[in-house]
Amino acid sequence: MRGARDEDCVARYSMIAFVHKAVYTVDSLNIVVFGRINAISQEDEYMKNLSVLTGCFAGACLLVSQGSMAQDCEELVLGSAISLTGKYATNGIHAKNGYEYAISKIAENGGVKVGDKCYNFKVIYYDDESKGDRGATLAERLISQDKVQYMLGPYSSGLTKAIAPVTEKYQIPMVEAEGAARSLFNKGYRYLFAVLSTSEQYLASAITLAAEKAQENGQETSSVKVAVAVENDPFSLDIRAGVLEDAAKYQMQIVIDEQLPRDLSDMSAILTKVKLLKPDVLVVSGHSKGAATAVRQIGEQNINVPMIAMTHCEAADVVGKFGEVANDILCSTQWAETLTYSDPIFGSAAEYELGFKAAYPEYAEKKVPYQTAQASAAVYVYKDAFERAGSLDREAVRDAIAATDLATFYGQIKFSEAGNNIAKPMVLRQIQNGEYNVVAPSAFASHPLNWPRGG
After folding, report:
1. Does 167 score more than 50 pLDDT?
2. 200-333+426-440 fold
């Protein structure tokens, strides 16, 4: 029996290798990629295919499992312009891997049932190069030339902001997982739906924690000094707005309020001011590149601030890259594997992490970033909506998405009239001895807060 299965796996691998060889097509716009990638490199793709073959002989070949379960299902095509190169490439690849993992899990579980038919998702991807104008052009191409009727979102609020007017113009539903800016949800869009919490919530709980610590130490919250350094993009500016609003509630002092350099590669001038003004809280938001720059230079300049909070810690792998320097930093997250969410497709949050790491071994020694988890959740929303709509009609599917009230491994998903998810809270994790532990809100906390940082 084992020999027969291995022979079948080799045959399937030959077909997979042929497909992988064939799907790279170069045109005037870009390289189009179907399937999983971590970089656009034929050498990398060869090594990944070799890993798939090895996995087959071990009896754990995800692609074969998917193929066996899905052989009678038709294709249901989605489209996505996503950042595979440029400054957002790290998270664009995390998101793409999340999409692909969800597609494989849904196929394993019988596919998408619409009436008496079965479908499996396939995504047409184009690389937007982390540029908004390119993202909009590629969305036009996906809809007008590739005839895509349903879209998955790009990475970042800025790219989502560029693409949303296109999908609205053509009345194409877009379920997105990586654009959290509030400004996306005050435009009256009917076809935009986001599974994640909006960005003003990301680091607000850090300000609450700082207020609580001041009060515990017999200080007025008005004595707390806050430094803010963010990228000039919709997401980070929303985080800044949320932090300033919460600081104002406690009458805290804003002693630094600056934007990170455009290329996110050097914030040493801002950190020199931090040394001089000695804030109690330092807040940083600059996506993955900004997080890596911040932690590296905090270590280089020996910055001692009682509380440091930032976004994108896991996606930037600040623990793996900077070790002890990252300890006690607070990291906002949309999702954590320790939360008690679950669903029939992915299992629990912990099971999602284990399954994803098995499918993508390059994540084995680090946390699965929330960008990956929420991308998978977006695909699950589509499965649920198609099945409830019982149709491939765009308007019926759009209405089913709008009516979503879905329990998932990522958390509850329910959309407001504006299209944002109103059912899932943010959580705050702290890096403690190299581990990410949830410390706020208290209802989700698995560990107490280490404060002051380095104390």
Report:
1. yes
2. Rossmann fold (3.40.50)
